[in-house]
Amino acid sequence: MTSLVWLRDDLRLADNPALRAAADRGEEIVVLFVLDEESPGIRPLGGAARWWFHHSLAELGERIASRGGTLVLRRGPAAAVVPEVVRDAGATAVYWNRRYGGPEREIDTDLKARLRGDGVEVASFAGSLLFEPWTVKTGAGTPYGVFTPFWRACRQLPAPRAPLAEPRSLDGPAVDGEDLDTWGLLPTRPDWAAGLRERWTPGERAARARLREFLGEDAATYDRARDEPAVGATSLLSPRLRWGELSPFTVWEAAVSSDAPIGGFLSEIGWREFAWHTLFHFPDLATSNLRPAFDAFPWPPLAEDRLDAWQRGQTGVPLVDAGMRELWHTGFMHNRVRMVTASFLVKNLLIDWRRGEEWFWDTLVDADSASNPFNWQWVAGSGADAAPYFRVFNPELQAKKFDGDGRYIDEWAPDSMDIEPIVDLGETRRAALAAYEAVRAAG
Ligand code: FAD
């Protein structure tokens, strides 16, 4: 008898409850990944994410092979592909870790019912979030809209479970699959991924090494220096969590059992949980304002040249240009700079947050369908527990405060001072605040 484990945002062997359940069943295992770009509502991966995903999956394939198994790759709508592989493998059980986006949940719920109808055992598990969205409710039974009480409520629930051991053997029957290289996930003409290769080693092994290194070294300065982009005090774990190379349970346990001061870090993990909580209850997070009054915002016609200058890091505002070039080069941007560049787009260039969200979606290696739109709406002021619209980050003051010696700007955009700024910060700030009056009037 064979168990099928369907991997999704959980490209790891350690602390993988679905894989663990299959191993505990003590039968043969087939591990499957389905590249589903066809099911309705599934958002196609951005370019940088595809790069990461390719390498992470390749590494996982090697790790599975070293335990005697095969990672079966198939492409197509999951609703058709998964039952096909169940038949090909002769599987009598299917296990997966749960997803929390609207279209993903619909696919999984339908599949669960169909497979069960065919007599297949199906079980799903919590692998990607410490506190599943429906388990955290206000006294009135509604979802949380403000972070602090949300996180307080989470911390009052039973503590996150200990991570599960990885299975030693993954033997199973041979099942036909596709070759990863035929999926065309890597950029070729042009190959723009040199900076990504320089900066990152995707995969579970490197993820675990980075977790150890962070807690052993950088975490000591996290609370003091996490807002300074040149310092490198943050964990850089976001792509690891995005792709599930590390589970949040593993990160949590390693953090709480380390000697490092981890209070601030745990609360950032809490923001990740809150973003997914919000997406679960508001599946249109990437396309609709969470606060409906924002629908009244009078966005001017899109100024393509301004959007283009922002994307290329050619605005003449040094901290903005440095961030946008770091993003393009490495697939990553420091959190403080993400907030500044996002605020500049929305509140100085008066460009709809959705255009910025799309660009980050395409260029971030950690882009995920909760954190990216959630944070864009937070900066824009249209979202959950958002920064008020009238809080406009001043990129010059932010640079003085968080990049006082100019190291970050020197590294990424030393020439930006010589570019004529594309807008006047004070004038555009005033125009943005005037436009915001329409939202205020709408309620
Ligand atoms: P650390 O400071 O070490 O934090 C630890 C972990 O907590 C992170 O790895 C991440 O998983 C989580 N985390 C931290 N801050 C946040 C936050 N504000 N919201 C949600 N989770 C958080 N993060 C993503 O993972 N994916 C995105 O697509 C994404 N898009 C963003 C867009 C904008 C406009 C902004 C302002 C922020 C965005 N963030 C996103 C949040 C944050 O910038 C990154 O998680 C963080 O910079 C990652 O660096 P780190 O791993 O070193 O963070």
TrEMBL record:
SUPFAM superfamilies: Cryptochrome/photolyase FAD-binding domain, Cryptochrome/photolyase, N-terminal domain. Its cofactor is FAD. Keywords: Chromophore, FAD, Flavoprotein. Residues 1-130 form the Photolyase/cryptochrome alpha/beta domain. It holds the Pfam family FAD_binding_7. Belongs to the DNA photolyase family. This is DNA photolyase family protein.
